[in-house]
């Protein structure tokens, strides 16, 4: 017997309330554990300080205490010693973050993000950084806010991001991490924009293979199997007939991750797609598919007046030189202003979203606008907040990017959304809980220019 709608709602509400209560209790316990671990670290320091001990002696005392604590936590002393260091960094170095966590303004994921992004700065700048970071964490989820905090830390750092990126790029490499059952991980450490482009191109090619399976079975016209299709069945220059190739495609049940890995291997081993039968009417030849990345570039960085980091939307910061190169090579580059006098389309009578409006929305939204989602806007669908079929207009105040997953949730579940002023989305869950999804932090900020220094020998004006 199925529960009634009221029983279902009551049961779900009880579960959600219990999850919220347990989350608060877990948070309190995690903070208490951090304080105890930090106290253990201070105890080791105090013990050796009394003896005017050398560094090695201090480390031995810390190891001993870590072993004692690890015995009751059932983890290794190495793990405890590492966690003691992390606890002291957070408890002693970032007290405002701990306080905000205790007050429920942020959660553990926020605290970890603040530590991982802020500790790259000199210690004397941590207090200033965490105050700014906390205010941003209060408005967004940890995965969403990470990119903002990375850029904030990079811009606050006394050394320019361009200089630090150049040093880091010198460490690019490819390495193999042996795995189990005859598998290994091929790990390439490359600039972020290159990594994003590699993954995007592989995704597009894999999606083309998967989406055109039925069509390619029906229109087989050439010998051989499709690029990326069951490559392990081929040896040398051997080619199968059309029936065999169609049978291979028809029985191909690989996931997109598996196809991505096979395409990756084929491209590296063969250089270019040797066999490609995807149709022009669908995705186009695989070899012609090129990577796409979405980058937000402050105007001052674009003109060379600033050397700060740029935002690879949905991922992490990239260096300004790469961003300028991408901007210069893009055929779609244009300035966007949210001002009717500039000619930016703000509304249209048609259902289709004009390209200029779409690009403005990409710059505004940056990513999927469901709470917590970071799928880049270029991989999302432009959704009419108020359904166009029910009278919703195609205008900026009624449009927002949603990824396929959350677009479907809006259509086929009891989740509801309305758009407030300024592009803010207010989501309402099936239980009636509301979540505000603010417009992402603008990629461009205007600050007053510093007054020019007085010429040599000039006297300062007397104060009033």
From TrEMBL:
Annotated GO MF terms = endonuclease activity
Which Gene3D superfamilies does the annotation name? 1.10.30.50
Q: Which domain of life is it from?
A: Bacteria
Question: Matching Pfam families, A to Z?
Answer: DUF222 (PF02720)
Q: Does the keyword RNA-binding apply?
A: no
Residues forming the HNH nuclease domain are: 356-408
The residue ranges flagged as biased composition, category Pro residues, are 449-464
Protein name listed in UniProt: HNH endonuclease
């Amino acid at each position: 017997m199925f529960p009634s709608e009221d029983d279902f709602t009551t049961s779900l509400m009880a579960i959600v309330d219990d999850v919220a209560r347990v989350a608060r209790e877990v948070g309190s316990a995690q903070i208490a554990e951090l304080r105890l671990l930090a106290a253990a670290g201070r105890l080791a320091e105090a013990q050796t300080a009394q003896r005017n001990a050398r560094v090695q002696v201090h480390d031995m005392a810390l190891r001993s205490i870590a072993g004692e604590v690890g015995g009751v936590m059932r983890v290794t002393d190495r793990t405890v010693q590492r966690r003691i260091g992390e606890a002291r960094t957070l408890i002693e170095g970032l007290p405002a973050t701990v306080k905000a966590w205790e007050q429920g303004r942020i959660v553990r994921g926020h605290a970890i993000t603040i530590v991982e992004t802020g500790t790259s700065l000199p210690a004397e700048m941590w207090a200033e950084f965490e105050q700014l970071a906390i205010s941003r964490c209060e408005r967004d989820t940890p995965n969403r806010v990470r990119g903002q905090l990375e850029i904030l830390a990079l811009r606050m750092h006394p050394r320019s991001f361009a200089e630090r990126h150049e040093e880091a790029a010198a460490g690019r490499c490819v390495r193999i991490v042996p795995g189990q059952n005859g598998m290994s991980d091929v790990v390439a450490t490359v600039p972020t924009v290159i990594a994003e482009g590699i993954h995007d191109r592989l995704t597009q090619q894999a999606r083309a293979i998967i989406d055109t399976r039925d069509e390619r079975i029906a229109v087989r016209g050439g010998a051989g199997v499709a690029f990326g299709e069951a490559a392990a069945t081929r040896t040398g220059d051997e080619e199968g007939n059309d029936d065999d190739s169609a049978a291979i495609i028809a029985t191909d049940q690989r996931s997109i991750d598996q196809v991505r890995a096979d395409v990756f291997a084929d491209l590296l081993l063969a250089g270019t797609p040797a066999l490609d039968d995807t149709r022009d009417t669908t995705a186009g030849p695989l070899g012609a598919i090129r990577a796409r990345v979405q980058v937000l570039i402050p105007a001052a960085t674009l003109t060379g007046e600033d050397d700060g980091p740029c935002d690879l939307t949905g991922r992490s910061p990239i260096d300004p030189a790469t961003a300028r190169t991408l901007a210069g090579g893009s055929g779609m580059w244009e300035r966007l202003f949210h001002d009717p006098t500039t000619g930016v389309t703000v509304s249209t009578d048609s259902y289709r979203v004009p390209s200029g409006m779409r690009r403005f929305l990409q710059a505004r939204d940056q990513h999927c606008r469901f709470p917590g989602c970071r799928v880049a806007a270029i991989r999302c669908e432009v959704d009419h907040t108020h359904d166009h079929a029910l009278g919703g207009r195609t205008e900026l105040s009624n449009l927002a990017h949603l990824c396929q997953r959350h677009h479907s949730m809006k259509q086929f579940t009891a989740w509801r959304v309305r758009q407030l002023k300024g592009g803010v989305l207010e989501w309402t869950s099936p239980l009636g809980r509301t979540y505000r999804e603010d417009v992402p932090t603008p990629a461009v900020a205007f600050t007053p220019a510093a007054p020019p220094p007085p010429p040599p020998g000039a006297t300062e004006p007397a104060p009033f």
